[in-house]
C-alpha cells in the first residue's frame, strides 16, 4: 500500500499490520529526550490497556466518535460490545489499518472537520492523552465550543490528559516556568519512522485545574473519574444544552 508523504505513524502501523512486529516510531519533542514508540502499542488488546482507558470504555454510551483512532483498538473493543462507533484520524495509514482490521465507520480528517449534520454523538472519546489533539489552550477553547455542535443533548466527552509540570522541577523540587512564554503544557512534537520525518505538530497536556476552568467557562459539567501514578487523569465533560 502506498501512503501519501509524510505519514511516519501511518507507515509504521501499516508495516506492523503486515507483519513487521518490530516497527518503532521515534518521537521527538521540545521538552524531553527522543523516545521510541513501538507500533505494537496501537494494537493492544483490552487487558493491555491502562486502567484509565478501560474505565473510559466502560463509561461510553450511545453513538461514539473516537477521535484520533490510531489502529482502532478502542473502536474495535466498543464494536464488540455492541456500540456504533465512528473513528477518525489524520493519518492515512492509520485509516487504512482501521479499515483492514474491521472498524466499520472510519474517516480521514482532523477533529475540527467532523460535520455536525452527520449525526449527533453521545460520546466523544479522546484516549492516549487524547485531549492533546486540540494542540494548544486556544485550540482547547475552540474545540470545546465546536464539540457542542457534535454532541446530542446530555452528551459527554471522555478524555485523558496529563499534568507535565514535573518536567520543570529544579533540584529542590520547585517549579521553574517562563511566565512570559506559552503555557508549559503546550508541546511541539515530530515523529520519524525509517527515512520519513513528519511535520511538527502541537500537543496539549492540560493540568486538571486549567481544564476545569476552560470547560466550565464553556458550559460543561466536569467530573474527574480517575488518575494514575504518571499524573494522567480521565475526565468526563457533560454538555447539558
UniProtKB/TrEMBL annotation:
Lineage: superkingdom: Bacteria
Record key words, sorted: Methyltransferase, Transferase
Signal peptide: none
Pfam families in the cross-refs: Methyltransf_25
One Gene Ontology MF term: methyltransferase activity
InterPro entries: Methyltransf_25, SAM-dependent_MTases_sf
Protein name: Class I SAM-dependent methyltransferase
